């Protein structure tokens, strides 16, 4: 059979492409099922980084794929969790890429209060097992806080009730942290507010609250669900600032109530717990002040009466000092005569002792004293001899111990002396060599200087045809000085010539001179053994 042969007619059935068929199925399903509500158990839940939410709805026989886009997830009050029984509201559509149908979910609600309460009880038991609701962790509420932080909606009646109650009882500084009190953003904003108040540093520009109040009005279980979220409970339990929970009415209970330090049935009751009544405090203070004044007055009166009673039992001061004063006067009168009598007695005793004091008695006393001194001197000599003997023995022992040490010290000193002598000899040899080298270098420099002096001396200049003119022993450098001088002396290479300024030359003034010699002289060496001793100065 030819591959390109016409197979023949295929009937009247139309042909569809895959996309056309998928689109037709999509339109049929979306047209048949518009907005639907599906009840089922949440199965697999997936939350990718895109923010969308993918999960399954199932019963005992079937499974439907469900998806909520990022914007729909943000509007959900209750997010589906695996195992929850929910009622999902959305639109049924298809996904051509995988040839399956799925439910686009707009909202999720628990399938009855029983399921929601079961999930709430499960979460409460898990958090309680961690110890977040332990009463030992709770902090006392301050009696009169200076600053109160309120976490609530800024536009509701709750904040007005709290401020009104605080104004009536005891006005305080209030900081409001506005949050959403229901919906998807509620839990995140409330937990952030609690952590934000705790992060305020004491003493900064914004005062740190002494007390926190988390408040919201009444509502259904779904409306209050944000305060049952785990992040809110953990933030309340971790708060370092005492926290009062005032969420809902008296019959409403949320998990933040268990983690807070105190639970108030209403927001107004929370304000009443936060501060006392100022008027009652003033009245109590006045009452206590009056009682204190009365007690002080009564105590003063009692002590005064007791003092007066004790005073009446004491004798009069005049009666107490009368007898001692009389004794003093009597003793004063007897004092003059007693002093005279005592002086007379002392004088008689002195005269009696002075009469017995004779030269013989003094000699006898001196002799006895001398005998005692001689006896003491003999005892002293014996004691000194014994002590000297003991010292001699001690010295002999020390000498016996000292001889070996001295021997070792002397032997060590001899060795050190030999080493030092050898070192000194080396240093002396080096010094003599250095001295010789220095003298040679200085001699060479001196000869060079002498040669330079001879080369630069004026005698060499004269030898080249110049002459030196002197007048009175001084060199003449100006014509006026030469004209004023009576006699000029001109020095040439081989002699000097006396000339008068008028041009006459004295015949006897020409004196032959020996050729000029170097005037440089070597410095005389100081002879050995001179006054200076030693080497002497080179100059």
Provide keyphrases for this structure:
single chain, 539 residues, alpha/beta, OB fold (Dihydrolipoamide Acetyltransferase, E2P), Rossmann fold, 5-stranded mixed barrel, 5-stranded parallel β-sheet, disordered C terminus
Describe this structure in words.
By secondary structure, this protein is an alpha/beta fold. Among the domains are: 18-111, Nucleic acid-binding proteins (OB fold (Dihydrolipoamide Acetyltransferase, E2P), Beta Barrel), CATH 2.40.50.140; 134-280, Response regulator (Rossmann fold), CATH 3.40.50.2300; 366-408; 416-456; 459-500, no CATH class. It has 13 helices and 15 strands. It has helices spanning 18-32, 70-75, 113-129, 157-169, 186-199, 230-238, 255-259, 267-274, 278-313, 317-356, 359-456, 458-463, 479-484, and strands spanning 35-46, 53-58, 63-68, 85-95, 100-110, 147-152, 173-178, 211-216, 243-247, 262-263, 468-471, 474-475, 488-491, 495-499, 511-512. The strands form 3 sheets. A 5-stranded mixed beta barrel has the order 1-2-3-5-4. Strands 7-6-8-9-10 form a 5-stranded parallel beta sheet, sandwiched between helices. Strand 13 (488-491) and strand 14 (495-499) form a beta hairpin. Helix 5 (186-199) runs parallel beside helix 6 (230-238). The protein is flat. The model is unreliable at 507-539 (pLDDT under 50).
């Amino acid at each position: 059979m030819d591959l390109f042969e016409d197979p023949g007619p295929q009937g009247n059935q139309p042909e569809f492409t895959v996309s056309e068929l998928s689109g037709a199925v999509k339109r049929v399903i979306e047209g048949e099922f518009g907005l639907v509500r599906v009840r089922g158990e949440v199965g697999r839940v997936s939350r990718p980084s895109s923010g969308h939410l993918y999960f399954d709805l199932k019963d005992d026989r079937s499974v439907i794929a469900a998806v909520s886009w990022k914007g729909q997830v943000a509007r959900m009050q209750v997010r589906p969790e695996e195992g929850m029984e929910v009622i999902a509201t959305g639109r049924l559509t298809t996904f051509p890429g995988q040839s399956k149908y799925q439910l686009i979910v707009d909202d999720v609600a628990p399938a009855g209060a029983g399921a929601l309460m079961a999930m709430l009880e499960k979460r409460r038991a898990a958090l309680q097992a961690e110890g977040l609701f332990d009463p030992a962790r709770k902090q006392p509420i301050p009696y009169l806080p200076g600053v109160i932080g309120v976490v609530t909606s800024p536009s509701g009646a709750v904040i007005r009730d709290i401020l009104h109650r605080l104004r009536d009882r005891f006005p305080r500084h209030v900081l409001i942290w506005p949050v959403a009190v229901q919906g998807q953003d509620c839990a995140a904003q409330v937990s952030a507010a609690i952590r934000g108040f705790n992060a305020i540093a004491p003493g900064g520009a914004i005062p740190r609250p002494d007390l926190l109040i988390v408040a919201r009005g009444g509502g259904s279980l779904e409306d209050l669900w944000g305060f049952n979220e785990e992040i809110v409970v953990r933030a309340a339990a971790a708060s370092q600032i005492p926290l009062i929970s005032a969420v809902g009415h008296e019959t409403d209970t949320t998990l933040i109530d268990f983690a807070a330090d105190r639970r108030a049935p209403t927001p107004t009751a929370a304000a009443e717990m936060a501060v006392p009544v100022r008027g009652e405090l003033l009245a109590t203070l006045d009452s206590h002040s009056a009682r204190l004044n009365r007690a002080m007055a009564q105590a003063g009166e009692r002590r005064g009466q007791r003092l007066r009673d004790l005073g009446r039992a004491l004798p009069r001061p005049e009666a107490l000092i009368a007898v001692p004063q009389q004794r003093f006067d009597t003793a004063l009168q007897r004092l003059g005569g007693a002093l005279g009598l005592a002086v007379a007695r002392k004088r008689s005793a002195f005269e009696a002792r002075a009469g017995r004091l004779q030269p013989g008695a003094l000699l006898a006393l001196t002799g006895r004293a001398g005998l005692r001194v001689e006896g003491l001197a003999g005892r002293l000599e014996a004691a000194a001899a014994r002590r000297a003997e003991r010292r001699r023995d001690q010295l002999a022992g020390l000498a016996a111990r000292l001889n070996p040490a001295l021997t070792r010290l002397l032997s060590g000193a001899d060795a050190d002396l030999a080493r030092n002598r050898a070192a000194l000899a080396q240093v002396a040899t080096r010094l003599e060599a250095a001295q010789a080298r220095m003298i040679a270098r200085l001699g060479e420099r001196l000869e060079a200087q002498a040669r330079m002096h001879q080369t630069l001396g004026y005698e060499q200049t004269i030898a080249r045809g110049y002459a030196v003119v002197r007048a009175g022993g001084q060199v003449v450098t100006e014509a006026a000085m030469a004209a004023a001088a009576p006699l000029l002396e001109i020095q040439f290479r081989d002699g000097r010539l006396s000339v008068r300024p008028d041009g006459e030359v004295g015949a006897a003034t020409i004196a032959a001179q020996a050729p000029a010699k170097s005037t440089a002289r070597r410095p005389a060496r100081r002879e050995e053994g001179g006054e200076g001793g030693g080497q002497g100065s080179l100059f």
